Amino acid sequence: MRSVRARAAIGATLVVAVALVAAGLAVLLVLRDNLIGQADLQAEVAAREVAGQLALDTRFEDLDLDDAEDHPVQVTDEEGRVVFVSQGLQAVSGTRSPGVSPVPSASVGATASPDGDDDDDDDGDDGRRPARGEVSSDDPDLSDGTATVDGKHADYRFAAVEATTSAGITLTVHAGAPLAPEQEAVDTVRGAMLTGLPVLLAVVAGVTWLVTRRALRPVEGIRREMAAITASEDLARRVPEPDSRDEIAALARTTNETLTVLEASVERQRRFVADASHELRSPIASLRTQLEVAEAHPELLDLPGAVADTVRLQVLAADLLLLARLDAGERPGAARLEVGALVREEVSQRAADRIPVTVEVTEGAAYEVNGSRGQVARVVGNLLDNAQRHAEGLVAVSVAADGRGVRVEVRDDGAGVPEDERERIFERFVRLDDARSRDDGGAGLGLAIARDVAARHGGTLTVHRAPEGGAAFRLWLPRAA
Q1: Residue numbers of the domain that contains 258
Q2: How far apart are CA 305 and CA 291, in angstroms?
Q3: pLDDT of residue 129
Q4: Nearest to 197 by CA among 20, 322, 74
Q5: How many angstroms from the chain centroid is the CA of residue 431?
Q6: Dihedral angle sign, alpha carbons of residues 279, 284, 289, 291
Q7: 102-106, 116-120, 174-178, 242-246: least confident range
Q8: Per-residue pLDDT reduced to its tens digit, 185-198
Q9: Domain end marker among 275, 295, 327
């Protein structure tokens, strides 16, 4: 099942079904308990009415049993023998005795004879009896049972109440209350639930399907546009953004932002490949020309020029390789570096520079950072190369603490960098002075490499105006922990 709408509809329907079934069962149990409680109360009332009459020594045939059909009555003596049953009771279960045929009882007969005369032989020592009997105030015993009254068999709840006659004889009255109303009510509610549940679940499934379909409609538009972009390879296209402020609108915005970044990355990659091919073409063509001339006229071989072209080609290839590694996400090393010592070492290896480099580092201060020694040295070297190309008579490098990091600043007294070009110079293959020869100006990769390396080390590289009037490049790296 691959459709989100179908899964959402089925899931919602199952959840609602489980909830409704649980609620329905709870309602049925509560309803059944309440109705059974009412039946228990009716049975108890009927039993106490009969017990009250027996406590007043009312004859069995004189008992008031107007609703004997709804409340069958069975009376047993202390020995469990049936001494009375209501009219029409043909069978009973759930009481103390299943009998429905009264049997003679000497004790009961002595209390109330059929003709109403008392037996003088049981008057006791002084011939006195209690003035009246009593009904037990204890909670009645309740039980489930069945009874057949006038040929109709049904379920009943029976209540057993004890009554003591004035002669001290204890009788137990079992009176029943029918459970048919309870069963009919429960069956009616159950039937209504079983009938309404499928209809309600169908409504839930349909509503969920429609709501989910409406909610996912923008997603389908995004999917179609992404498929079209993939097929056309046109990264300038964008997916539609819904007017809502929900998660789908956020997804569309994020997708468009990703497409923008991807478009810029692809365009930068294309431009990089084109510029690299162009930059490589010149030294390779020059070197090939010199070799072909040397093959035809060995005496005309420009060996220094061939070596210079080879060196330039080697440097360009190394720069391109480093940029490729940086673009691939290569992480710098985690070695601990002392920036002041690294700068002094890098400057000491530049004895052939056109302008001597002035180093400004506080003696005894430690400026330690974590990173790749070779890459940080490459950044310092590229900044010094750039300063040497543009300086008129001053190149200075300083190392100092700057907040939680270390600042390396390379200054020159050249023409400086125009403010509106201070970000563009860090792009690859960019040279502001188009009249400058390629040999003098380089390929335009040094500053791009320097900024990428600084970013990989968690730092920054910016350009400002130097006090001497030229450019001041500031490399900031976080201090080692």
Answers
A1: 247-327
A2: 11
A3: 46
A4: 20
A5: 51
A6: positive
A7: 116-120
A8: 888 998 988 888 89
A9: 327
DSSP of 31-79: HHHHHHHHHHHHHHHHHHHHHHHHHTT--GGG---TTTTTS-EEEE-TT
- What is the pLDDT, as a whole number, of residue 116? 42
What are 317-371's pLDDT values in tens digits? 888 888 777 777 777 777 899 999 999 999 999 888 889 999 998 877 788 999 9
- How high is the pLDDT of residue 124? 44
Separation of alpha carbons 147 and 175, rounded Å: 11
What CATH number is attached to the domain comprising 262? 1.10.287.130
H/E run at residue 106: helix 106-111
Q: Residue 162: helix, strand or coil by DSSP?
A: strand
The DSSP element (H or E) to which 155 belongs, if any, is: strand 152-164
CA–CA distance, 417 with 411 (Å, rounded to integer): 12
**Pair of tokens at residue 182:** 């309870």
On the question of pLDDT at 299 being above 80, the answer is no
- 479 DSSP 8-state letter: B
pLDDT at 126 over 50: no
Cα–Cα dist 481/340, whole Å: 17
Report pLDDT for 395.
94
In this structure, the number of other CB atoms found within 10 A of the CB of residue 395 comes to 27
Phi, psi of 458 (to 5 degrees): 80, 15
Residue identified by tokens 């020592």 is 125
Q: Is residue 57 part of a domain?
A: yes
Q: Choose the final residue of a domain: 149, 166, 185.
A: 185
DSSP output for 242-296: -SS-SHHHHHHHHHHHHHHHHHHHHHHHHHHHHHHHHHHHHHHHHHHHHHHHHHH
